[in-house]
Write a structure and sequence with these properties.
6 strands; three-stranded antiparallel beta sheet
Length: about 160
Amino acid sequence: MIPGIMPELEEAQVEINPADLDIEVMRAGGAGGQHVNKTESAVRIWYKKGTAEEVEVKCQDGRSQTKNKEQAMRVLRGRVFEAQQRKLHEERAEMRRTLIGGGDRSARIRTYNFPDGRITDHRIGLTVYKLAEILAGNLQHLVIPMQQHDKNERLAAAK
């Protein structure tokens, strides 16, 4: 998507509950002569007014209230879609940050202690005293606890 250009979306792509809308009609300002001063053709639509997700769209370009309302709804759908995409992107980015870590040298993943024959995985808090077996390729001592930890995390997130 090109920055500054909003996509024109179909109604099916963005679900907007009519109960979340607050629609106001008013007289349009600017050029247009007596017609502008006498008819309430301008439309302002608020989506989820008074919440953190509030979006306001105002349209007074056309002479018809119906056409202005249709145009305002198209713009509103685009803005709501863009906000949903931005929120989804932020959630994914946050999840990636927690998985990857900060990249600091102090952000350890695993410690191998050869004198004690110990391996410690700092991500899940696991210490195993079978370093020789693990280095020989018997990774089940690490993999099974990691899978169990991941399963527990997913179950906790689903609740």
